[in-house]
Write a structure and sequence with these properties.
- The chain is α+β, with helices and mostly antiparallel strands.
- The chain has 3 domains: about 120 residues; about 90 residues, Immunoglobulins (Immunoglobulin-like, Sandwich), CATH 2.60.40; about 60 residues, no CATH class.
- About 40% of the residues lie in helices and about 25% in strands.
- It contains 6 helices and 16 strands.
- The longest helix is centred in the C-terminal third of the chain and has 57 residues.
- The radius of gyration is 35 Å and the shape is elongated.
Length: about 350
Amino acid sequence: MFGSDPFDDDANKSGPLGQDLLVKLRNSKLKYPFIVFAANAFFLPILLLAQCFGLIVLPLAILLFLYVMKVQNFWHQLLIGMFTILIAVLLSAAALVPTVTTEADLEIKSFDGTLVDGSLTPFRGNRSTLYNYSITVVNDNVTSDICPYVNIGELKGISIDDWNKSMLDHFLNEDNTSVTYYLLTHANGTINLFSFSVSVNGVWYEAGNLNDGTVFAVQGPIDESTLAVLGYLSIYMFFTVMQLAFPVFLILLLFLRFMYKSQEAKRKMLESYRKKKLEDDGKGGPDMGDPERSRRLSAFGDGSDEMFVCSECGADVPATAKFCPNCGESFEDEEPEIDIGDDRLRGRG
């Protein structure tokens, strides 16, 4: 990809394995919606498995299909990439709606078992709904100093803002070995999260979604309007993608264009020297008294299209060149050695 123009039209030739359809697609306007569809079809399954990895795969998928479809204009590449990313935002938000609006089957508790049976009812509602948050503290000492709180946060953009820490009311269970605390309150956000923090005789305990030694907030309550949830998830995915996927796409795109422009400048320089040589040949041959001109013509050959690769630096070199114009490696044939008995004679041909 880096040795030549990655968006070169020479690759638009039909191959022996039924590439005619691909060539026709490259030459039609359908290639643009194809890039959008193919990149998102590649990206979405990975996003649902691992969100961070999916956001890295998205710009790579866009560049891959831009290359396959041979989109050469930089501004076309940039606009198609941005449009593909916007479609990815909407599709990923829609794909996440069922996950967000479905109540997870979690056991809300603390690691040591002091806090158990955490719950939220109902899971979905509206701004006027009263939600019941409750947590049970296992403690057989009724004189203990217990301060229970519920932490409720609202999803805004890519972060959870407006954390509200509210103290719970309580009632004593009949067995006198545990106390259940509850709080009835409204939720202002469309997508909210919650957890419990309880102090027992000055020792704090956290209850929530336990995972890998960490207590995470639990999802809920969620607004009953699915359209409102989709809107909030679209905003969340937009900020997330613009922070992670778009910069990667832009950097890679600029890098590829830089590589292409470098190769293009090198080809133009080579063609300029070939054209100059042909003009000199048409005027009666080059001025061989000019050492620099003789050196250039030796390096760039006789203007034929045949090329080979320099064994020292890997540069493309005209087949008739006497040395590499890039690294200076000489291609003059060495004189052969002939073994006759114990003596070695060097040919002088």
